[in-house]
Amino acid sequence: MAKFSTQQIALFIVVALVCAFVPVYSVEEVEAKTLWDTCLLKITPKCALDIIDVVFGDGTLSNSCCHDLVEEGKMCHDKLIKYISDRPSLIAKESQYLKKRDDLWTHCVSISKTV
């Protein structure tokens, strides 16, 4: 039971980090709920944070997280990164983030094929 609570807390942290990029007045509740219901619950919170760090920072992604990302699906990956990169504070570099998103996807697909 404690592990379940820890996972819930970690998922909350992921969502909070996603929302941190978004001013309160611009959060679209339906879009955020759709991301939560269809995408964020499919991967571990650590992998979600690592993916965000790779695309919006200079992090690295483990092979197991690459596998989780591919299992999550391209639509969820694209939608989540696009949702974050559309924030006013990030929009200036959106094309850079979308390229990193696509490069990460290609890398993870190639890793998943070899495993």
TrEMBL record:
Keywords: Signal
A Pfam family it matches: Prolamin_like
Signal peptide start and end residues: 1-26
Domain named Prolamin-like: residues: 38-109
Protein name: Prolamin-like domain-containing protein
